[in-house]
């Protein structure tokens, strides 16, 4: 399924310069990897709104790729580029094997998860707990870099548990960079509390320390430093560009996806008009119809687009129609157009 023609959809070729080792544009704005949320259906949707924002998969564990159905986890639509695969793991050989597989599938970046605080992830000895082992993290990154030509990056926290001093963060980045050569660090500007807090609480309770990430960029001016955590609007995002190389947006880009309509213009100076919500709804209806024909339940896709009309009159009706269990049981992608029609009629009054 191709992306929208005209104002929406990504560029068709990699013609613009980007950061070192990449044939795409710099990661000024990216959408964070979010488990159960940033699957290929959401990413196709996001790409209909922004041509340029970097997209990240959900975290995929090395075990899932090596012992499971790799195609299920790695499949994506060509319009999703630029696209990064986030891997979870701590065995350099396994990560190298999975990175090579991802590069063969055509991913533009491989990202290592060193930020997830869930106890389930910790039981596999990866995620945020790896911040205590910078040498191992470097070994993992180096193993992946040795087998792929695309950028290998790392996403991590500013600290773990009660280790809250900036020196810990700076030492982690310094060791990982010197030992692996990794140049792109995506920093969630909160500590990860490894015991006692749920993943949701870990996104809300530890205080945000943007100043730590700013200091990191000052200390390592030649590295690509990106900031993540708590961004709600463009004023906050634009303010960060004075201090770091890029901003990664998480849940706001999911619940209020239309914020991405401004990403190309504000992030890269792309003057082409953004799509309309109706155009995006039409693209999603066509995409979902094709997926339904392949056996995908409609509800697996409509759940990701409930925020399309967020903040507008009729948004509640849009969400209600696309969440109606009886209607979804019909697996008719025309439901998306019917819901859009209802909202657009209200907006045109």
Automatic annotation (TrEMBL):
<feature type="site" description="Interacts with tRNA; defines subfamily-specific binding signature">
    <location>
        <position position="319"/>
    </location>
</feature>
<keyword id="KW-0285">Flavoprotein</keyword>
<dbReference type="InterPro" id="IPR001269">
    <property type="entry name" value="DUS_fam"/>
</dbReference>
<feature type="binding site">
    <location>
        <position position="188"/>
    </location>
    <ligand>
        <name>FMN</name>
    </ligand>
</feature>
<dbReference type="Pfam" id="PF01207">
    <property type="entry name" value="Dus"/>
</dbReference>
<keyword id="KW-0288">FMN</keyword>
<dbReference type="GO" id="GO:0102264">
    <property type="term" value="F:tRNA-dihydrouridine20 synthase activity"/>
</dbReference>
<keyword id="KW-0521">NADP</keyword>
<keyword id="KW-0820">tRNA-binding</keyword>
<feature type="site" description="Interacts with tRNA">
    <location>
        <position position="113"/>
    </location>
</feature>
<comment type="similarity">
    <text>Belongs to the Dus family. DusA subfamily.</text>
</comment>
<feature type="domain" description="DUS-like FMN-binding">
    <location>
        <begin position="31"/>
        <end position="334"/>
    </location>
</feature>
<comment type="similarity">
    <text>Belongs to the dus family.</text>
</comment>
<feature type="binding site">
    <location>
        <position position="86"/>
    </location>
    <ligand>
        <name>FMN</name>
    </ligand>
</feature>
<keyword id="KW-0694">RNA-binding</keyword>
<dbReference type="InterPro" id="IPR018517">
    <property type="entry name" value="tRNA_hU_synthase_CS"/>
</dbReference>
<dbReference type="InterPro" id="IPR035587">
    <property type="entry name" value="DUS-like_FMN-bd"/>
</dbReference>
<dbReference type="GO" id="GO:0050660">
    <property type="term" value="F:flavin adenine dinucleotide binding"/>
</dbReference>
<comment type="function">
    <text>Catalyzes the synthesis of 5,6-dihydrouridine (D), a modified base found in the D-loop of most tRNAs, via the reduction of the C5-C6 double bond in target uridines. Specifically modifies U20 and U20a in tRNAs.</text>
</comment>
<keyword id="KW-0560">Oxidoreductase</keyword>
<feature type="binding site">
    <location>
        <begin position="228"/>
        <end position="230"/>
    </location>
    <ligand>
        <name>FMN</name>
    </ligand>
</feature>
<feature type="site" description="Interacts with tRNA; defines subfamily-specific binding signature">
    <location>
        <position position="200"/>
    </location>
</feature>
<feature type="active site" description="Proton donor">
    <location>
        <position position="116"/>
    </location>
</feature>
<feature type="site" description="Interacts with tRNA; defines subfamily-specific binding signature">
    <location>
        <position position="316"/>
    </location>
</feature>
<feature type="binding site">
    <location>
        <begin position="33"/>
        <end position="35"/>
    </location>
    <ligand>
        <name>FMN</name>
    </ligand>
</feature>
<feature type="binding site">
    <location>
        <begin position="250"/>
        <end position="251"/>
    </location>
    <ligand>
        <name>FMN</name>
    </ligand>
</feature>
<dbReference type="GO" id="GO:0102266">
    <property type="term" value="F:tRNA-dihydrouridine20a synthase activity"/>
</dbReference>
<dbReference type="InterPro" id="IPR013785">
    <property type="entry name" value="Aldolase_TIM"/>
</dbReference>
<feature type="site" description="Interacts with tRNA">
    <location>
        <position position="203"/>
    </location>
</feature>
<dbReference type="InterPro" id="IPR004653">
    <property type="entry name" value="DusA"/>
</dbReference>
<keyword id="KW-0547">Nucleotide-binding</keyword>
<feature type="binding site">
    <location>
        <position position="155"/>
    </location>
    <ligand>
        <name>FMN</name>
    </ligand>
</feature>
<dbReference type="GO" id="GO:0000049">
    <property type="term" value="F:tRNA binding"/>
</dbReference>
<protein>
    <recommendedName>
        <fullName>tRNA-dihydrouridine(20/20a) synthase</fullName>
        <ecNumber>1.3.1.91</ecNumber>
    </recommendedName>
</protein>
<keyword id="KW-0819">tRNA processing</keyword>
<dbReference type="GO" id="GO:0010181">
    <property type="term" value="F:FMN binding"/>
</dbReference>
<feature type="region of interest" description="Disordered">
    <location>
        <begin position="1"/>
        <end position="22"/>
    </location>
</feature>
């Amino acid at each position: 399924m191709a992306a929208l023609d005209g104002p929406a959809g990504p560029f068709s070729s990699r013609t613009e310069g980007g950061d070192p080792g990449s044939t795409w544009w710099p990661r000024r704005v990216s959408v964070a990897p979010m488990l159960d949320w940033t699957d290929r259906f959401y990413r196709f949707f996001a790409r209909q709104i922004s041509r340029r924002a970097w997209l990240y998969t959900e975290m995929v564990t090395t075990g899932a790729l090596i012992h499971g159905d790799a195609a299920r986890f790695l499949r994506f639509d060509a319009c999703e580029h630029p696209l990064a695969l986030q891997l979870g793991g701590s065995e350099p050989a396994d990560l190298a094997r999975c990175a090579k597989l991802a590069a063969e599938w055509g991913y533009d970046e491989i990202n290592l998860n060193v930020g997830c605080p869930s106890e389930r992830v910790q039981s596999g000895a990866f995620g945020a707990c790896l911040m205590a082992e910078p040498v191992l993290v470097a070994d993992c990154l180096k193993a992946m870099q040795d087998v792929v030509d695309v950028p290998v990056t790392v996403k991590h926290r500013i600290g773990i548990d009660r280790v809250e001093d900036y020196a810990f963060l700076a030492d982690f980045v310094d060791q990982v960079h010197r030992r692996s050569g990794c140049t792109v660090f995506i920093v969630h500007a909160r500590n990860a509390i490894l015991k006692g807090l749920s993943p949701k609480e870990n996104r809300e309770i530890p205080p945000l320390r943007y100043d730590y990430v700013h200091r990191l960029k000052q200390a390592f001016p030649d590295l690509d430093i990106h900031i993540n955590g708590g961004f709600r609007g463009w004023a906050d995002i634009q303010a960060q560009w004075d201090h770091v190389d890029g901003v990664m947006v998480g849940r706001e880009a999911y619940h209020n996806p239309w914020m991405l309509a401004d990403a190309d213009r504000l992030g890269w100076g792309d003057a082409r008009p953004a799509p309309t919500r109706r155009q995006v709804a039409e693209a999603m209806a066509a995409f979902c119809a094709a997926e339904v024909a392949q056996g995908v339940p409609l509800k697996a896709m409509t759940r990701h687009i409930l925020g399309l009309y967020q903040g507008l009159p009729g948004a509640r009706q849009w969400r209600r129609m696309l969440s109606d269990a009886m209607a979804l049981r019909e697996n008719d992608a025309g439901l998306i157009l019917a819901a859009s029609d209802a909202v657009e009629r209200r907006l045109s009054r």
